[in-house]
Amino acid sequence: PVLRLLEAQLQDQRREHEEEMEALKNQVDLMQEELEKQRQAFLQTLQLSPEVQVEFGLQQEITRLTNENLDLKELLEKLEKNEKKLKKQLKIYMKKVQDFEASQTMVPVERRPHERNMQVAVQRKEKDFQGMLEYYKEDEPLLIRNLIT
């Protein structure tokens, strides 16, 4: 059973290797074709007059710069979308913080000393357990605000 399993794994690896080799051979063939096209274009360019060679070179550079510009515009759009998403999240969190602060002003005074005692206990636990934190569910927005700031 173990030998058969190893043989099956070996066959799978061999098949994967052959598939990778075939893909690489295809990629090499495509690159060789592209290289041949570029070589032919270069030879044709050499046969042109110097003025036409300069114009051809300028056209190629314009094409390259245009493609690069399009890539940069695409990247800029992605970054702007991400910025909008992050700003929206920030607004949501700021609203939660404001709501929490507003609710804290309405909390009875007798609970507040208990909160201070709990914070001291949390600080001790944080030293002992590094990363563990105990808190009340209603204190979550305050914790988030403190983490953000």
TrEMBL record:
The protein's UniProt keywords, in alphabetical order, are: Coiled coil
Annotated coiled-coil positions are: 3-103
Q: Which superkingdom heads the taxonomic lineage of this protein's source?
A: Eukaryota
Q: Does the keyword Coiled coil apply?
A: yes
User: What is the name listed in the Swiss-Prot or TrEMBL entry for this protein?
Assistant: MYO5B protein
Source species of the chain: Calcarius ornatus (Chestnut-collared longspur)
Tell me the gene name.
Myo5b_0
